[in-house]
Write a structure and sequence with these properties.
Helix content: 10-25%
Radius of gyration: 12 Å
Largest sheet: 5 strands, mixed
CATH superfamily: Beta-grasp domain
Structural class: alpha+beta
Strand order of the largest sheet: 2-1-5-3-4
CATH class: Alpha Beta
Number of domains: 1
CATH architecture: Roll
Order of helices and strands: EEHHEEE
Number of helices: 2
Length: 92
């Protein structure tokens, strides 16, 4: 079994229009690395030039925000679901 990564609509171009991608990873950092290996170029949407997760992209493991867990080193295990949610700004 693997980890399911839910890909938001604006990033699906990088994943060949897949809305869910399966990865075998132990942390958010290794998940990003595996996504990058499978889909070159997606890392630009997820991390900055130093490899730091972008502020405006939120990651949730089983609906828990990783900013309140261990950040990029948050552990993930078989059967977990990771949601990638880009922040949306706007309004009046």
């Amino acid at each position: 079994m693997a980890v399911s990564v839910l890909i938001p609509t604006p990033m699906r171009k990088q994943t060949n229009e897949q809305d869910v991608v399966e990865v075998n990873a132990g942390t958010i950092a290794s998940m990003v690395a595996e996504l990058t290996a499978q889909f070159p170029g997606i890392e630009r949407r997820l991390t900055d030039d130093q490899g730091v997760l972008r502020r405006f992209v939120n990651f949730y493991v089983n609906e828990e925000d990783i900013r309140f867990l261990e950040g990029k080193e948050t552990p993930i295990k078989d059967g977990d679901t990771v949601s990638i949610v880009p922040a949306i700004a706007g309004g009046c």
